[in-house]
Specification:
The structure is a homodimer. By secondary structure, the first copy, chain A, is an alpha+beta fold. Chain A is built from 7 helices and 20 strands. Chain A folds into 2 domains: 69 residues, no CATH class; 255 residues, Fumarylacetoacetate hydrolase, domain 2, CATH 3.90.850.10.
């Protein structure tokens, strides 16, 4: 099934079910007011949501209401927590090159704890204070988890993946090197993260969900121009080991998001889902970075298509915008 | 006023108002179902909660119900986000010594993004998988924020502090050095954080709230034995600069927690609110650490008293317990 969250008076938004083709939707707030509540009561809620989804897909074309991406919040505007891996070594390699810092040498999975209070919807502006902070996109696959027990095995971990979605995990590269070297990780270098309009259950991606990885390419555009279609199947460890790593010293509660890290591979023709990678390669080749980071007014588009070219998750398609002093909180 | 959260069917718990002497309480879930909701609607909720608090304090001794600390969840079991500073340089100095890593040299405030999905109540067990992970306590002061605009000034930042509370920000020292050196910060080294039974408004600590710092000593015990009373007034920057730092590239949404870092000072007779500090000093003095980290079954107590010896926030008083395989999620 495909689920989304419409913005509402509640900061957790209102749960809706979206048709497979992303054209129509129906309210689901009678089943659970928001997706976070649905995840807490997944055993009860999931079959009801699935039933409503199947009815919507079977209904005549005018059933429900038109699905408006611009009304979407993030599927989980305020998830229980946000843990982001970095499971594509190619990404780390080129970003370190771009930042001028030593390559990261960690035998353990790399992951950071992200902010949770203000996740952005797919077409909401990404609001930032200053373009000189070197604004970058990061296209990722994100697993939405149910309750995960402490000490879960790598094998059992994937059973707790309830939904998948895409993210633009924005990074501010000018702040990143210092924060990475502080010992405390990233705070200012990681502003709000944005998410695809819909989150989908694993059966929606069944042909491509193999060994805890999504075997699809991500389509990434900057101002309408292609910049990459990296392959999400190239995760080094896959989601199971990442979840088990995070749950080693604590249980993870329903509504936890776990990210793959920026999708990236060594294929020269695949482009990139992060500008820093492109700049790292330019430094290697030309001795200098040539591709600028994002400026205010630019747009980023991230999506993933099925074999028929239909969008699986809907597209993240957002503008980089400036926070004006005294701007809306 | 003093507010607490009783555990309930909701994962955000149920809001109650607690008398100044922490003896009695009344339900407040008609004003806001939980503290997170109250913070989202603080302008409306705060005067109503204050009114109920004053009535409770004025009522005869039997009014309301007996306040049971063991029924408490964390005041915010699932805060919007958890950002923890490290604003007592003395703490960082001795912990680095204990861990055998170079002293942290950062001109910017040190802070890490913590997990939010599973905050623990004051007397709930701190459940961990293995005592060989070097289990440590960390006694902190925590500010509970309302909505904070991006780019807030250091001066304006403190206006957004709605409540204060105490925390035991448990650390697993055996995992910390590697994670601090990974560039991505701490994930496994920072399991669930625990909080004092009540959160209090600033007027409750008015005589001691000076220059964005709480001028009180923290009382810390291990298995009933005193191990420290470090002075919370020794914050290097105070809360205003910490909030402004965190809000530089993003707004902070109501229900954000911002921690002071482990309360610590250079006074030799003040003891410590973290065992790693004690071990660092032992290494300096004797060439080896002598004080063991926490073992399963041990208890930690953290509180702060007023001039009459009455507890301001109630005490964190919890047991370190082992997660058994197949234990309760």
């Amino acid at each position: 099934m495909k689920l989304a969250t419409y913005r509402s008076e509640s900061r957790d938004g209102r749960l809706i079910v979206v048709s497979r083709n992303l054209q129509r939707a129906v309210d689901a707030s009678d089943i659970a007011p928001d997706l976070l509540s649905a995840l807490e009561h997944w055993e009860v809620a999931a079959p009801l949501l699935q039933q409503r989804y199947e009815a919507l897909n079977a209904d005549p074309p005018g059933a429900g209401f038109s699905f408006e991406v611009d009304s979407c919040a993030a599927p989980l505007p305020r998830p229980s927590q946000w843990i982001d891996g970095s499971d594509f070594p190619n990404h780390g390699h080129w970003v370190c090159k771009a930042l001028g810092i030593p390559a990261l040498a960690s035998a353990a999975p790399l992951m950071y704890q992200g902010g949770t209070d203000d996740m952005r919807g797919a077409t909401q502006d990404l609001i930032l204070p200053d373009e000189s902070l070197d604004i970058d996109l990061e296209g990722e696959v994100v697993a939405v988890l149910g309750d995960v027990p402490m000490g879960v095995s790598e094998e059992d971990a994937t059973k707790h993946i309830k939904l998948l979605m895409l993210a633009n995990d924005c990074s501010l590269r000018a702040l990143q090197a210092q924060e990475m070297q502080s010992g405390f990780g990233m705070i200012r270098a990681k502003p709000s993260t944005s998410f695809s309009p819909v989150a989908v259950s694993l059966d929606e991606v069944k042909p491509w969900w193999i060994q805890n990885r999504l075997h699809r390419k991500m389509q990434v555009h900057r101002n309408g121009e292609w910049i990459g279609n990296p392959d999400a199947s190239l995760m080094k460890r896959g989601f199971g080991p990442l979840i088990a790593h995070a749950a080693y010293t604590r249980r993870l509660r329903a509504g936890t998001l776990l990210g793959s890290g920026t999708v990236s591979g060594p294929d020269d023709f695949a482009g990139s889902a992060a500008i820093a990678e492109i700049r790292g390669m330019e430094i290697e080749k030309h001795g200098e970075a040539r591709t600028p980071y994002l400026r205010f007014g630019e747009r980023v588009r991230i999506e993933m298509l099925d074999d028929e070219g239909q969008s699986i998750f809907g597209a993240i398609d957002q503008r980089i915008a400036r926070q004006f002093p005294g701007g809306v909180v």
